[in-house]
Amino acid sequence: MTRDFADTRALFDLPEGVIYLDGNSLGPLPKAAAARVARTVTEEWGQMLITGWNKAGWMEQPSKTGDRIGRLIGAEPGHVVMGDTLSIKVYQALASALEMNPTRRVILSDTGNFPSDLYMAEGLCRTLGPDYNLKTVAPEQVLEALDDTVAVMMITEVDYRTGRRHDMAALTARAHEVGALAVWDLAHSAGALPVEVAKGGADFAVGCTYKYLNSGPGGPAFIYVAPRHAETARPALSGWLGHEAPFAFDLDYRPGRGIERMRVGTPPVLQLAALDASLDIWDKVEMADIRDASLALTDRFIAGVETACPGLELATPRDHAMRGSQVSFRHPEGYAIMQALIARGVIGDFRAPDILRFGFTPLFINAEDVDKAVAIIKDVMDGALWDRPEYKTRARVT
Fold first, then answer.
1. Which of 114, 166, 304, 388 lies 20 to 30 Å from 122 when distance is taken between CA atoms?
2. What three-state secondary structure class fits 126?
3. Catalytic residue among 185, 203, 276, 354
4. CA-based end-to-end distance of the chain
5. Binding-site entries
6. How far apart are CA 323 and CA 328, in angstroms?
């Protein structure tokens, strides 16, 4: 294990002259990933053809890689599996949890949750019928909103806009106290901070891998099912690879053993190869060290920007316990400001209606990057360099 993040920084392919503060949206390319994927293409797919499913271990990849991610989220071995997209995994977890709590009809979430999670919940409720509904409250009101009408609490641990962090253990304990199940979305916490799904009592957890875990655009998602539910949770999406015996080609579905039943479709072998290369870097570090470095970087960034740019309003909690690994500021011209920053080599992103969002990954971001970024932000704000037509034209991806 290393605490010297100069060593890990050297393992990423970072463009010259760029300060990349958007790894919370799309992680950068690990240097080893291109060769790893190329080897999978040429030596495995190219030479083994279909025999790669057995010879190269493609069929076992989702579970083996799931265990590697399990270490980062505090999961028991054998209870995380890869595949599909995060939205699909949200749907699976919600549907299974609702079926396990059949006398209740309410999914509780918060208004800061990622919209796709809410859309999946709304769609599932429409499918199940008019008695089912999604209830959303302000993030600060989730604890008091948990009552004996709630079937499932679905929360993203770190708010994608503000970086506010929920208390997983406290909210899960309260959910269980009132007879609800807890589904956690770890999209902005896996790889960003220490996560303890087992100790925290989560019933289900899901997450993506293309952010802090650097699997590349469209990288596969993961799902965790607590051991107490592993043999009873019924997958609503009964895909053939979640079958007890996929190659028996039975006409009737029988769920596989444990976490294997949460597999749906054919695993994305090339994307898993890229993720595998990234996880080799994660194997070199401890999440506690990542967290310490992250808090130091975000503290430094907050202090620097607030001193240099009083016109930007901090949206991220100052309290370490309530902060993920990103810092967000508000400004009415947030989109244009971010485009001006990107043009000058500081890459963050914008989230409507007014959030400038900056992610901090100590694996490749250091204090010097923070200071340079603050200086560029100051120049952009002091000179109103964002106030140009080309920076105000919205692109499809913000």
1. 166
2. helix
3. 185
4. 36
5. 86-87, 114-117, 156, 185, 188, 210, 240, 266
6. 11
User: In the structure encoding, which two tokens stand for residue 157, read together?
Assistant: 């641990």
Mean pLDDT of the chain: 96
131 tagged catalytic = no
Annotated binding-site residues for pyridoxal 5'-phosphate read: 86-87, 114-117, 156, 185, 188, 210, 240, 266
Q: What is the pTM of this model?
A: 0.96
Burial of 120 (0-12, 13-18, 19+ CB in 10 A): buried
118-145, pLDDT tens digit by residue?
A: 999 999 999 999 999 999 999 999 999 9
Confirm whether 114 is a catalytic residue: yes
Q: How many residues does the chain have?
A: 398
Q: Is 12 a catalytic residue?
A: no
Q: What is the pLDDT of residue 261?
A: 96
- Catalytic residue list contains 185: yes
Confidence (pLDDT) at 1: 72
pLDDT in tens, 304-342: 999 999 999 999 999 999 999 999 999 999 999 999 999
Residue 257: active-site member: no
Q: Which residues contact 115 (CB under 8 A, 6 or more apart)?
A: none
User: Which candidate in 5, 132, 210, 391 is catalytic?
Assistant: 210
Structure tokens at 377: 């932000």
The residues near 311 (Cβ < 8 Å, ≥ 6 apart) are 331, 381
Torsion of CA 270, 186, 162, 166, to 10 degrees: -170
Nearest to 357 by CA among 290, 287, 292, 301: 301
The predicted model gives 203-209 an average pLDDT of: 98
